[in-house]
Design brief:
23 helices; six-stranded mixed β-sheet
């Protein structure tokens, strides 16, 4: 017999966590309408689901009602053929109910997957356009969770929560109509039992949920021990400091606590199942007693044994959906919280947009001007203050300065990875914020210190810059970047896999592929953010001429820590304390005896002496 132990009745589904209670979303008309807007394109399919649920609930009544006729007419009348016919009717009703249920589940799943498809496309498109600052402040794990786990959870809401609520309501309503139409007295007897089934479920469910929460916390602690001590770096540390026994004792203690809590949780569940198993029999027994009393005392001449039997079957059919509907509030709150988390990301403003009718001026050999530029990542601390300088068209400027002085931030303002908070950056006399954003970035090539390669082949990573590049163009770019010969030594050549984030390649190899990628882009403006930092002296010397060839005829800005790279620049900008402190050639800056002289004495000279000593 069906009991009140609906799916998740004792588990966390029936209760809100403390965090969920604190972050309970505010229900509003706007929020509900926004959620329903995702259902709107599939309203016809949803109506089919609703009709299927009503049909399934109605047809599901027939086996119980037919059971009453079997007892009253077929068995009492000794009519075998009528019995067989009724049994076939009951079987047909069961089959029809199941088939309708399968169709309903199929349509619900189709709707939910279509909505997930729409929402993932919308989220990905939105996140693609978010400013760079969003990805530097948000945790990558949170972004992936919103994209995958949260949006995929919508499937449970549509095909699970929503369908279950409608199905349970339909089952309860149709069962109650059938019960009261057969015998209102027996219907009341069956309903009276329901509170005695629900209250213990809630009480024990809270206890078990508390144990489950404790168990989860201890499991997290145990997983932490495992992750720390059995990882590559962790296990080596344990061995080097001979901490095997201590770590085993720590693991054994946590494991013991997990086991004890799990046993308590399982024991509480088993005894409760026994008690509730007894209670689920109480309703039918009371109905049998009341029905028998009515028949024996002749209080209701119309009441039959078949009616009693059918009533018992219908009451059993009533218990599970009633218990499930009691958790509607929790299910509803969690569903709203899911959508609220998704909408939180979708509502994040995109502060760096392409202006309507953005400008597309010619930027070939045009000056880049920083006009009283101010910038900060946080309101508390201004990083750049009144930065002023001009890079003439076609010239190469180097930027040097202490770590954290804002060198990378300065160049990131050109392709609008960030926007200035004061002043302006112009190219060809046009504020970069007035450019068509795609056009602006198409004309800027950037090689960063931390080279990023996608998990694919070398060829695919090179084509990312220019998917229309010919094989000849690609090989020429790689020859200029001094990486072609290395690629050809690989078993698959240009079709060799680089691994996740390019882990199959050395830092210098990745850097040279990155430089070849920018060469393929053929930008008008070139930014090298410590582009040769991952190269050894031999590789750097081999590629220095290539970089000069690439920079020729392009307006270029270099952030460098190697003197050999800096000396190639037309002018050197010295950044310190968020300002341009000095500007000039190498000799001019040394003569000033300021910040550059200090950098030269502490960094560049040591690097030169080290290289000379190593090569000598």
């Amino acid at each position: 017999m069906a009991g009140p132990m609906g799916r998740g009745g004792l588990g966390p589904r029936g209760f809100l966590t403390d965090e969920e209670k604190q972050n309970m979303p505010k229900v509003s008309k706007e929020l509900l309408l926004r959620i329903l807007s995702y259902l709107k394109p599939y309203w016809f399919q949803f109506i089919l689901v609703f009709v299927a649920i009503i049909l399934s609930a109605t047809v599901g009544l027939l086996p119980a009602i037919i059971t009453g006729r079997i007892v009253d007419q077929a068995l009492t009348g000794n009519d075998l053929w009528f019995l067989i016919r009724l049994l076939l009717y009951a079987f047909g009703a069961l089959m029809a109910s199941q088939i309708i249920g399968v169709l309903e589940n199929y349509i619900s799943a189709w709707i939910s997957q279509k909505i997930i498809y729409d929402m993932k496309n919308e989220m990905y498109r939105h996140l693609e356009s978010m400013p760079h600052s969003f990805f530097t402040t948000e945790k990558q794990g949170d972004i992936i969770t919103r994209m995958n786990t949260d949006i995929s959870g919508v499937s449970t809401v549509i095909s699970g929560t929503l369908s279950r609520i409608i199905s349970n309501v339909a089952t309860v309503v149709t069962s109650l109509i059938a019960l009261f139409s057969m015998s209102w007295q027996l219907a009341i007897v069956g309903i009276i039992v329901i509170p005695f089934l629900i209250l213990p479920t809630k009480s024990v469910g809270k206890t078990r949920y508390k144990l489950l929460t404790e168990s989860q916390a201890k499991n997290d602690e145990m997983n932490q021990v495992i992750n720390e001590t059995l990882s590559v770096s962790g296990s080596m540390l344990v061995k080097l400091f001979t901490r095997e026994e201590k770590e085993y004792e720590r693991f054994e203690k946590v494991n013991s606590e997990v086991t004890k809590i799990s046993l308590k949780e399982q024991r509480s569940g088993k005894w409760f199942m026994v008690i509730m198993g007894m209670f689920t029999q109480l309703g039918p027994l009371l109905i049998y007693f009341a029905g028998g009393l009515f028949i024996i005392r002749r209080w209701d001449p119309t009441l039959t044994v078949g009616t009693i039997t059918a009533t018992v079957a219908l009451v059993n059919r009533l218990y599970r959906p009633v218990e499930s509907l009691l958790n509607v509030g929790v299910d509803f709150t969690r569903s709203l919280a899911l959508f609220t988390r998704i909408f939180d990301y979708l509502d994040r403003p995109n502060t760096i947009k392409s202006p309507e009718n953005g400008l597309k001026p010619d930027v070939q050999d045009q000056p880049i001007v920083y006009d009283h530029v101010a910038f900060s990542y946080t309101p508390e601390k201004e990083l750049l203050t009144d930065v002023n300088f001009t890079v003439p068209g076609g010239k190469t400027y180097a930027i040097v300065g202490p770590s954290g002085s804002g060198k990378s931030t300065i160049v990131n303002l050109i392709p609008r990875l960030y926007d200035v908070l004061g002043g302006r950056v112009t190219i060809a006399g046009v504020d970069v914020r007035d450019f068509d954003l795609t056009y602006l970035r198409e004309n800027i090539g950037v090689v960063t210190q931390e080279t990023y390669l996608f998990n694919g082949t070398i060829l695919e990573n090179l084509q990312y810059a220019n998917e229309n590049a010919t094989r000849e163009d690609i090989e020429n770019a790689c020859r200029i970047a001094n990486i072609h010969d290395f690629i050809m030594t690989q078993p698959e050549g240009y079709d060799s896999e680089v691994g996740n984030r390019g882990l199959k390649l050395s830092g210098g190899e990745k850097q040279r592929i990155s430089i070849a990628r920018v060469i393929l882009k053929d930008p008008k403006i070139l930014i090298l953010d410590e582009a040769t930092s991952a190269l050894d002296s031999i590789s750097e010397n081999a590629i220095q001429d290539a970089l000069e060839a690439v920079m020729k005829g392009r307006t270029s800005i270099i952030i460098a820590h190697r003197l050999s790279t800096i000396l190639k620049a037309d002018q050197i900008l010295v950044v310190a304390d968020g300002k341009i402190k000095e500007q000039g050639t190498h000799e001019e800056l040394l003569a000033l005896g300021g910040v550059y002289r200090e950098l030269y004495e502490t960094q560049f000279r040591k690097a030169i002496e080290y290289e000379m000593e190593k090569n000598g």
